[in-house]
Structures are given as C-alpha cells and as structure tokens.
Amino acid sequence: METVDLLIKNGQVVTAAGHDGPVAGENMNELEVLENGCVAVKGEQIVAVGLEDKVMSEVQITDKTRIIDATDKVVTPGLIDSHTHFIFGGSREDEFVMRIQGASYMEIMEAGGGILNTVRATRAASLEELKELGRKRLDWMLKMGTTTVESKSGYGLNLEAELKQLQASYELNQEHPMDIVNTFLGAHAWPEEYKDDHEGYIKVIIEEMLPKVKEAGLAEFCDVFCEKGVFSIEETREIMLAAKEMGFDLKLHADEMTSLGGAELAAELRAVSAEHLLMISDEGIDAMRDKGVMAVLLPATAFTLRKPYAPVQKMMEAGLPFALATDFNPGSSPTPSLPLAMTIACLYMQLTPEAVFNAVTINAAYALKRADQIGSIEVGKQADLVIFDIDSYRKIPYFYGVNLVDKVIKKGKVVVD
Ligand code: NIG
Ligand code: FE
C-alpha cells in the first residue's frame, strides 16, 4: 500500500470531478461533492479521494503523514484565475474617482489615460520592481485560494518592456508557489509612438515581438484587445494568424464594449478562449460552441465599470461552456479575489454556487489547457487544494467581503496555514 504525506479528512470535499470535457448547459448546476470526504496526497499528487473507509483501505499512514482534520470545513480544488493582468507598475485610483464622477472607461482611455497610464508606469519600473509588486499580488491571490493564475503582458507595448513584463512573471513562476501561465498581449492598446501608424505597430508585433517571445519561451498564449477604437477585427485577425503560425495558442479580448464580432473571430481562429463577451451576439455564442471555444467571463469588470453582464443564461441555454476569472488589473478590475468574482456572478448573473465553482475550477483549467493536471480533486491530478473555514461550499460565495480560506495546499505542500 502506498504511504502518504498528507491526509485531509472529515471535510465537505468539492471534487468538481466526473467530467471528460468542459462543463456546459444544465450540467453547470451539478457539482460533485463528498460529505465527510477524505483526500490523500503523496508528493505533488492526489493519490486517493473518497469516503474515509475507502481511502484508508487504499493508502497507508506513517508517523510522517500530516493529518488535517477538516471537520466543519470545505475542501475544494485550488481555484484557477484564467484571466489577469497582475504585473503592472503604478495604480489608477485617480481614474477610479473620475469614473465615480461619471467619466467612462473608454473616454479616459481615449484621453491618454487608462491602459497608457499604466504603460508609462510599467515602462519606468525595473524588472526587480515589477517582480516585487507581482509577488505581493500573488500572495494576495494565494491567500484567497487561487493556486494557478494567467498573466497577460500588454503594459509594455514595446519589445523591451513587453519582454520585461513577461520575464517578471516567468521568474515569479519559478520563485513563488503559484503556477503562472503567461500570455503575450502586445496588442493591448496603440502605444503613443504608433498612434498614427497602426501598420507600423502591427509590423513590430509580428516581426519583432512575437518571434522574440516565442524564442525565449516567455508565453504560451497570444491575446489581442479587439475593440472599437483599439484593434479592429482585421488587425486582430492579422496578428492572431501570425501568432498561430508561430505556435502560440490563442485567447481574445472580445465584444467587451461593442458587439464587433470578436466571438465569431475567436471561433474562426479556433482560439482556446474568448473573454469578456458582455456584448456577444447570439451568432457569436453558437459559433464559439460549435468550434469549442471557452467563454471566460469577468463579472468583477462589469461590476467595476457598471456595465451590463455577459449574457451567461443564453450561453447556458446554448450549451457554451464558460469559466469565471477576476481580470485583475489596475483599471477595469482592481480585485485579485476570485471568491468576490464568484459572489458577483451569483448575484448579478443569477448563477448558482455550483455553476460558479465549476467555472473557477474545471472549466478554468480547460481555459488554460491544463485540465489534465488541475481543476478537480481526482487521483493523478496535482495536489492543489483549498480548505475553507466554513461548513458548506454554498456559503463561500454567500459570505462575501471576508476571507474564508483556512489553508492552501500547492503541489502537495501547505503554503498558507
Ligand atoms: O481586460 N479590456 C482591456 N484590458 C483590460 C483592462 C486593462 C486596464 O484598464 O489596464 C481588461 O479589462
Ligand atoms: Fe483583461
């Protein structure tokens, strides 16, 4: 019998297991939960899951095994934040005040603020400074139960600063318990230097940035902010096709402020995911479903910008799978908290606690192409687990504004205790 390093027992275990593909439609409201469940871990892996009798018949405890009693606690897979921009210099609380007083996000951006504001601060920061800021934000996220995070560039907008930003999250991935998945988002805004030469900047992205990022192995995904006044459908297609050709997987900021056809484009390009989608068309929903593109929805952004939420009920009816993420960034979503995003999704998108858990675990794993390793509590998967100090998973989105996390286990190690 296998000896184990860690045994968690007597908990309500949300396994989110039992799926061989992304969860969609009515199945979003089904969540596998074990009462009085037990999870056994050896090294970095989950080796047994189930009721205590079953697990104890499969594994052996030694005097080195750490036993955690999770009575009146909930055990979940490590939460996965599949869309963030957490590496950035500066902050934008002045714009927060402007928006309180009535200015819109796009008005601020068109006046040279917004993303470009953060670009100036990020360019001015050193690699070490960006890493220090990033490390602190990773600690925030880890303490709230996130164990894997996607990290987008896009605050450099020139070769050197884009590489610096990606390098910061690449190095943090080695140094911090969090797993970080890098996405190149050089097409996040038109840099000041190229505001009247869009072709010139696209050339820089395709001929300089993408090949360098690929060569250095600094990003897995390529993303574009496809939006009216930012990157058009044609410009987005050109960049995405070049990225695909170089071997990047694709993500897309699509149909956020205007219904531009970004979802349809993501389907045409067989992107892994299309994100935001507040203004997605009915055709876009069907096209994404038919081509297997995951919707990544960002309720904290709609909340912050006071915009209508993505039409998730239509997505459920159409059978389009979706994940939920924070979009953590200094402008449109200054929160690193997935539990808060889950609460907003329940209250304003009328999602059940079961649906939001599926959306931040197994479906989020699919959005990052890691569903074979993370996103559920199943034998053979990485031991990324969260223990919440509350006796029902339904109370996690319900009691908001308080951090309910008791412990976080990352690759078998207790990293928040
Ligand atoms: O996903 N929409 C574009 N990009 C980010 C916002 C970035 C920023 O405002 O700094 C987003 O919301
Ligand atoms: Fe974003």
What can you tell me about this protein's structure?
This protein is of the alpha/beta class. It folds into 2 domains: about 120 residues, Urease, subunit C, domain 1, CATH 2.30.40; about 290 residues, Alpha-Beta Barrel (TIM Barrel). Helices cover about 40% and strands about 20% of the residues. The chain has 16 helices and 18 strands. Strands 2, 3, 4, 6, 7, 16, 17 and 18 form an 8-stranded mixed sheet that branches. An 8-stranded parallel sheet has the order 8-9-10-11-12-13-14-15. Helix 6 packs parallel to helix 7 and helix 9 runs parallel beside helix 10. The mean pLDDT is about 95. Bound molecules: N-(iminomethyl)-L-glutamic acid and fe (iii) ion. Fe (iii) ion binds next to loops. It is an enzyme of class 3 (hydrolase). Keywords: Cytoplasm, Histidine metabolism, Hydrolase, Iron, Metal-binding, Zinc. Pathway: Amino-acid degradation; L-histidine degradation into L-glutamate; N-formimidoyl-L-glutamate from L-histidine: step 3/3. It is found in: Cytoplasm.
Task: Write the topology of this structure.
Blueprint: E1 2-3, E2 6-14, E3 33-42, E4 45-51, H1 52-58, E5 59-60, E6 66-69, E7 74-77, E8 79-81, H2 93-100, H3 105-110, H4 115-124, H5 127-143, E9 146-152, H6 159-175, E10 179-187, H7 198-215, E11 221-224, H8 233-245, E12 249-254, H9 262-268, E13 273-276, H10 282-291, E14 294-297, H11 299-305, H12 312-318, E15 322-324, H13 338-349, H14 353-360, H15 362-367, E16 385-388, H16 395-398, E17 405-410, E18 413-416
Parallel strand pairs: 1-5, 2-6, 2-7, 8-9, 9-10, 10-11, 11-12, 12-13, 13-14, 14-15
Antiparallel strand pairs: 2-3, 3-4, 7-16, 16-17, 17-18
Bound molecules: N-(iminomethyl)-L-glutamic acid and fe (iii) ion.
